[in-house]
Write a structure and sequence with these properties.
With 111 residues, this protein is α+β, with helices and mostly antiparallel strands. The chain has a domain of 33 residues. The chain contains three helices and two strands. A two-stranded antiparallel ribbon has the order 1-2. Strand 1 and strand 2 form a beta hairpin. The longest helix has 21 residues. The termini are far apart.
Length: 111
């Protein structure tokens, strides 16, 4: 909110200008601005030094030392699919010959 007297821009919840101490409540009411100071979100609390300790425990139990199953079968399937795709592309590919004629300065392709 901008102070009508000195032009200093401050927060909407201030009752007076921090710079010139002008009462800005009437201006705030005229602009229909809120008059309460909201709490910073938890993530910003660490930056402002106002850490909110009301999180507590959420009651989820988990184990860190879980074993990851081997994905060898999945990798074999992926490799098989890639191989089949590459073979299909090679079967459909045409044989193209590139001809370079240095005397005439031309390059062309023949199928």
């Amino acid at each position: 909110m901008k102070c009508p007297k000195c032009g200093y821009v401050s927060f909407d919840y201030n009752e007076s200008c921090p710079k010139c101490d002008e009462d800005i409540r009437a201006e705030r009411t005229k602009l229909n601005l809120s008059d309460y100071r909201s709490d910073p979100p938890f993530l910003l609390g660490a930056l402002t030094g106002q850490v909110n300790d009301s999180e507590g425990e959420i009651g989820i139990d988990y184990s860190v030392d879980m074993e990851v199953p081997e994905a060898q079968g999945d990798m074999n399937l992926v490799n098989a699919i890639e191989t089949a795709r590459n073979e299909a592309l090679m079967d459909k590919a045409e044989k193209i010959t590139v001809v370079i004629d240095k005397k005439k300065g031309r390059v062309w392709a023949e199928a």
